[in-house]
# Entry
Amino acid sequence: MTVERAAGPLTGTERETLRGFLDFHRATLAMKCEGLSDDELRTRSMPPSTLSLLGLVRHMAEVERTWFRKVVAGEDITLVYSDVNDYQVAYDASKATREDAFAKWQAEVEHARRIEREADSLDTVVHAARWDADVSLRLVMMHVTLEYARHNGHADFLREGIDGVVGA
# Structure
């Protein structure tokens, strides 16, 4: 399966721009994982780190769930991979599969897209308990985009170490 990745819009509203660049970075992570086996996706960066491409996919499911479902929508739910709010659990993908990790990640992305679409405006303000601060939907979208961008840099190095593929 080839991942479709559209560049962020060069013109448009602020909301369209934020959506576009967030989707661009979501697709970038999927591209970095494209064509690899479960074993390759579980390849760790270096001891003692548990960082792997599959771990990044699992982590980003947690990020999407936390920021959109827990913070913006106010859902009282646990994390995807930990019922005690341990964000590190997702990184250990030693027993994970592509099918499960990608299904959970994509489900959280779809929830996030729905929540964002249903919000009245980027100025919607919610309380981020972890930060003990009120934040706007605008900040949430920017923060999640930056989280993807940072981890996509990690994904670049992980992918190059697995099979030499670089770029994009």
User: Anything to note?
Assistant: Helices lie at 14-33, 38-41, 53-72, 98-118, 137-163. DSSP finds five helices and two strands in the chain.
